[in-house]
Amino acid sequence: MATEIKSDRLKTDEMIINMGPQHPATHGVLRLILKLDGEIVRHVEPVLGHLHRAQEWQGQNRTWFQYQALIDRVDYLSGMFTSWALARASEHVDGTEVPERAEYLRVLASELNRISSHLLWLGTYLIDLGALYGFPFYPFREREKILTFLEEISGQRMMFNYIRIGGVQRDPKADWFKRVEAFTKEFPERVNEYEAIVTENPIFLDRTTGVGVLPKSLAMEYGVTGPSLRASGINYDLRRFKPYSVYDKLKFDVITFDKDGDTRDRYLARVREMRQSNEIIKQVIDMIPQGDIMAKTKKQNAGLRVKAGEGFAAVESPRGVLGCYVVSNGSDKPYRFRWRNPSFSNLSVLPPLLIDRPIADVMAIFGSLDIILPDVDR
């Protein structure tokens, strides 16, 4: 005789758990307060402030020359872009004309940095999904080569301080361009290797397809930008729609999907974006002109100043629109700094993506947004 199962035995109690702030898969000290019904997430509250970098306060209490070196430490995976946003905003206020060669070098260094950032995201994201069988280290093979290139021109492997107000720090040697060009020829085949292992992997598809769907309207409401926005069907990239530097002279595709994007779409968007960055680098190497790399009016020393005024500038970073607003009173220190960091807005959309999903999907969805915590706790 079959035993009758009473319904109250299937009832689960609501449980509140903390994921983080000391959790390896949150990629920094982020605390997620999860309210669970069994294994289903019913409520999420990201708790910030554990990693506050005082990014804006420091900008108002350091000289212009000092702050250029500090800002790399915010989005530590793509310091070229924070430096570039700071430089562009300051140059707008000052009326500085950047030499054309310096602009090409900025694009070249930044697109290398974009690839290196996406490569690290790819490797760590596969670890978040449980792929501990060696593949996560494949992308680091190419990332190490890129960091070596960037170290040669900046002196650092992460905190570059290469893009300066008025230009760039150093002009690469001819041999450097040849080695970068050789890398661009081999890199597409390396991306093919990543995709051969991951893109149609049945376990990866089960963990990502239809998971964490981000509707266009929700993405716009929360101010999501970057690959996460374009994976949801919104064709917006500052390099194309508000061109800056020499991007209007370069040919590349803005990777955009035609539907509300899920976790797999955000993966594909970054993989394809790496291929486009590789094509941009090839063009820059072919097109870069001779000339100065620093505006003659901007000596890189402790006496560096920016004329009185205010201005805003933004760049398209690996995580989205990175904006810098600066107010100068003409002294050796900025008067005010305010930053628009893409990770902050992109993290804000996490709670609605997690509601009614199993707890096993938390890291799959969170990781697909590519958050850098110092970029959140600015």
Salient structural properties:
378 residues; alpha+beta; Cytochrome-c3 Hydrogenase, chain B; 3-stranded antiparallel sheet; 15 helices; 8 strands; globular; disordered N terminus
CATH architecture label: Orthogonal Bundle
Question: Tell me, what's the shape?
Answer: globular
- DSSP, total strands: 8
Helix-strand makeup class: alpha+beta
Please count the helical segments.
15
Domain tally: 1
The CATH class assignment is Mainly Alpha
Beta content comes to 5-15%
CATH level-4 homologous superfamily: Cytochrome-c3 Hydrogenase, chain B
- Fraction in helix: 40-55%
Distance between the termini: 64 Å
Q: Spatial order of the strands in the main sheet?
A: 1-2-3
Quaternary form? single chain
What gyration radius follows from the Cα positions, in whole Å? 22 Å
Query: What name does CATH use for the topology?
Result: Cytochrome-c3 Hydrogenase, chain B
Largest β-sheet summary: 3 strands, antiparallel
Average residue-wise pLDDT: 92
Low-confidence stretches: 1-7
In sequence order, what are the helices and strands, one letter per element?
EEEHHHHHEEHHHHHHEEEHHHH
List the helices and strands and how they pair.
Blueprint: E1 14-19, E2 31-37, E3 40-47, H1 55-59, H2 64-70, H3 79-94, H4 100-128, H5 138-154, E4 163-164, E5 167-168, H6 174-198, H7 202-208, H8 216-222, H9 227-230, H10 238-241, H11 263-287, E6 309-317, E7 320-328, E8 336-340, H12 342-348, H13 350-354, H14 362-368, H15 373-376
Antiparallel strand pairs: 1-2, 2-3, 4-5, 6-7, 7-8
Helix pairs in contact: 3-4, 4-5, 4-11, 4-14, 5-6, 6-11
